[in-house]
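<goal> How does this chain fold?
<body> The protein record starts here
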Amino acid sequence: MRTSPARRTTWTVAVAAALAAGLLASSPGTGLAAGTSHAVGPSHIAGSPDPALASEPGSPKTVSSGWSIPWGLSWLPDGSALLTERDTFKVYTLTQDGTKRQIGAVPDVVTTGGEGGLLSVAVSPSWKSDHYVYVMHTAADGNRIARMTFDGSDLSDYKVLVGGIKKNTYHNGGRIKFGPDGYLYATTGDAQSPDLAQDKTSLNGKILRMTPDGMPAPGNPFNSLVYSYGHRNPQGITWDAEGHLWEGELGNSKYDELNLIEPGKNYGWPICEGGCSTTGMTDPKRQWPVAEASPSAVAYADGAIYMAALRGERLWRIPVAGTSAGTPKAYYTNQYGRLRTVESVPGTKSLWLTTTNADNNGDGETGSDKVFQIDLT
């Protein structure tokens, strides 16, 4: 659970002495907000020399407005997207030119008065032949992963694939995506019961990996759905060009994290928040004070991880090379409110970015959220 503070009205660029001390200062570009970060964190969290990046995100352009907490986003083969609204339980298509159409609603969804509801959506890699769409949502008996059919016009045929994921007001995780290996990955929160994250028999506080039918994927480290553990409230996963899995995770009161996920690894929560020296724990590649991030989604594009920040109200760009993460840089600080989901647009050098200001931690009215396009130039 994270209380949203009053928005910052100023932002100080770190001076050279701060750089020498290991802090980061980002330089303002045209139309972009400057920022500073403590993302380097403790000295034993290794960074890397920054890869040369050919592009930077330009100014956001509105694709569509009138949304209320657009949470999940997944691409269809025709270049349009499916989007979910957390509290209305509705699913929409949205085309590149901004045409929005409701295709149905997901049954059995409940809200929690906090972060639960209709969360992520993932289009099957074989959609042209199977027409499957996957959703993760909160239900009366806990969080679920379910499969539905989208025939190009309507959503139907709801089937639960995975249940038994504990829910709570907060810390429900909720991101699902298909990986380059063809398996479905899901992030689950600790449901405000931190010890569940260290319990390998629990589905909470984990990254799960499964077949399209909801069974444990071959090669999973514990012969179960569990792929990695020790997570507090992960809401972002993405793969880079080399196939590495990166995860964004909301911390408690000290640090949010960008983790490189490997099968069977323990990412520390609740024993560690951020980097620590405890044997058996895997340190994050980057970390941020919670006021600067609260990441809900991550996406890879053009040599960098892009991280959408809720409480931090900014978009972070973190260059990656191999298994190392370079110096983060912030964009759009305090310009568009709480940033929920970021996804790269297939076949382009662009991102789609959604806001979530109409939720319980935001200050927007119903229908005040937007979908932006950001071109990398």
The first strand starts at residue 24 and ends at 25.
